[in-house]
Amino acid sequence: MLFSLLCQHAFCSSLSHLCPKDQALALLQFKHMFTISPYDFGDLKTLSWNKSIDCCSWDGVHCDEMTGQVTELNLAGSRLQGKFHSNSSLFQLSNLKRLDLSFNNFSGSYISPKFGEFSSLTHLDLSNSNFTGLIPAEISRLSKLRVLRIQSNSDGLRFRPHNFELLLMSLTQLRELILDSVNISSTIPPNFSSYLTTLHLLNTELYGILPGRVFHLSNLQSLDLIDNPQLTVKFPTTKWNSSASLMELYLSSVNATGRMPESFGHLTSLRTLTIISCNLSGFIPKPLWNLTNIEELNLVDNHLEGPISDFFRFGKLRWLSLGNNNFDVQLEFLFFNRSWTQLEMLDFSSNSVTGPIPSNVSGMQNLQRLYLSSNHLNGTIPSWIFSLPSLTNLGLSHNHFSGNIQEFKSKTLHEVSLKQNQLHGPIPSNVSGMQNLKVLLLSLNHLNGTIPSWIFSLPSLFYLDLSDNHFSGNIQEFYSESLDFVSLKQNQLQGPIPKSLVNQHDLYYLYLSHNNLSGEIASTICNSKTLKVLDLNSNNLEGTIPLCLGEMSVLWVLDLSNNSLSGTINTNFSIGNLLMVIKFDGNKLEGKVPQSLINCKGLEVVDLGNNELSDTFPKWLGALPYMKILNLRSNKFYGPIKDSRTDNLFAQLRVIDLSSNGFSGNLPVSLFENFKAMKIIGENSGTREYVADMLSVDYTSSFIVTTKGLELELPRVLTTYLIIDLSRNRFEGHIPSIIGDLIGLRTLNLSHNRLEGHIPASLHQLSVLESLDLSSNKISGEIPQQLVSLTSLEVLNLSHNHLVGCIPKGKQFDTFENSSYQGNDGIRGLPLSKDCGGDEGVSQATTPFGLDQEEEEGDTSIISWQAVLMGYGCGLVIGLSIIYIMMSTQYPAWFSRMDVELEHKILKRMKKYKKRR
């Protein structure tokens, strides 16, 4: 009987694991719909699927022991790639209870409504598999679901209005709900599963007020509402019902303004507390110190303050991050706290920490990350920091540390940031270990000497910034092959550019500007297939520009300005290049502007100023759709800028500088008409936007402009700072009134030309104009009274023209001095001494510029009496002549009447003159 039972059990067991043929076929068909991605990581589970083997034995497939039906399919991270169709054979597996398709690549696929037909599903995970579009309402039919994860990794998933509310109300058995980065755009309804243990709704566009019921879910263990800025969270003021279960709380960029509530002290099971950028203020309440089980405390970017000594009670703490607050940190107590034996992360950056770091320390043997940047620390950096056995990341930048850098002895360091301090002396020449160092930031200090050879040999180094120091000597050859970013700018480095540096395979950003580098630019630099920024500005480089530079396929910025480069620009800029900035200014370049620049469709800045180029105006550059700055100043350009019937030339232009050339003819009216970006006043959005803003890669496109009477070098040009400078040319004719339509202009300089006619009254429309220079032309007529409305005008220069009439009064015109008008003999009014008339409208004589008041009065008196005597002398001669004629012609009556009238007029004028004296 026993033998019979064993045989029966074995027979039944063998039958129970046989997979139905239709389900095996459905799985194989599903497998063949996809390819295996060669770029992703994961297990190749479907490779084991073979029809010769029972499908219940395949990787990721689980069956019911009695029926053999497939009940679980786990293909998470299986590197599947392809379209997930709504008629997929997967939907034939009607008995599925668990389905995990996460971390695959179904790019562009929709979540089929047929997922709602898996009526037995308890677990569904479609996270991070590049699904897109609407989440079907049919998901709400899965009433047995306990776990639902649909995280989006492309922000392409969303709910229809009210479908999120329907889902929460229908899935009453849910334990875990994760919808990170799904566009919900809804409030959280008050009614949902009371069984929830995990609720993660990170970056879901939630709004309204978080229902208070969430904080009283008795089973809730993990709550994540990070990055929902329109969501208001009101913390409970009484004891939380979830005090026995809540272990993780994540809040970031939500509206939780106010003080941290004392009710947090009831969450005795809490392991992780993260509240970032929530505008919390004040002291941390005392009940919080009861959270003795806390392991991770992250309160970055709030307005919290007070002492931190009570943090020492947290003996299990592994992660303490309090950056960007107002904590009064006592470093001596901090580093000698013996209770933090497990501490791995310590962040007090951007607080109000002062004083030196203690010279020795106890504990901290497990510390991996130490961030104290942006404080007021001083003294020397103690050597023990560089010897911590587990330290990987060290951030001490933006402080007042001085002295030499100690020798790096830690072999675990990945990142060291000591930038913007007052460190001096050389970098240590003998360094042990450092094989794992990836980031070294020492910029903005006073370091000197040569750059030691060990830096150039670090095998893992990819980010090196030694800029703004006093390093000298030659740059040694690089032996590291992992470099991504190199900045050695603003030093005193000499010699040639190392060939090994420009030949780096993975180098993206190279900054060597403002040094004393010499020699020629080797054409081997063009071999780089990854270089995006090449900044060699302000060195002593000579020779010609390599022809191949324009063929670098991914280059964004090419800055060779302020060197001694010569010859013509023969560079061939290839079709499809990605150049945004070309700066060749301040060299000795000759010839013409290369026509191949038209292939640089992404160009925003072209700066060829201060060279010896000889060409007509390259109007064809206007066809580049993103052109914002064009600088051709101080060259030998010549000829008229002809009108064009082509629309949209230079439509996005913000700055045009053609000064100090030989341009002639009339001002280009049609060009002004096309300046569409200048016809808009840039709005102040609160954030400063710059032309060719490359801040993310540490590049600033500096630009020399003449504005407000000064020649300035702007490190960056605001998109709202619009400039036209056509000065020092040979333009003639009238100033076109169309300039008044360029209402966004901040600077207009047309000085030192041959312009004539009147100042157009339309210039009063330039409401944000700050500098207007029309000096040294042949402009005539009066200054338009309408210009008084230019309340932003800081500098006005109308000198050396032929202007007449009265200077407008009021507003900005009351602030301008004599120099704004000198050299215009016909101008009257303040600030000139030649006024526009007293009560009787008689003008006074003009005072020469620079005479004092006493000299003015004396000269005026002499000139007045000389005029009187000359008048009387001439009158006497004419009078005697008239008497002789009248007597000889015998008209005494007429003569008598004329004599009486003349006497009356002379007496009347004499009385007026004496009265004024």
UniProtKB/TrEMBL annotation:
Belongs to the RLP family. Residues 21-64 form the Leucine-rich repeat-containing N-terminal plant-type domain. Keywords: Cell membrane, Glycoprotein, Leucine-rich repeat, Membrane, Repeat, Signal, Transmembrane, Transmembrane helix. The chain crosses the membrane at residues 863-887. Its main location: membrane. This is Leucine-rich repeat-containing N-terminal plant-type domain-containing protein. Coiled coil: none annotated. Signal peptide: none annotated. InterPro entries: Leu-rich_rpt (IPR001611), Leu-rich_rpt_typical-subtyp (IPR003591), LRR_dom_sf (IPR032675), LRR_N_plant-typ (IPR013210), RLP23-like (IPR046956). GO terms for biological process: defense response to fungus. The keyword Methyltransferase does not apply.
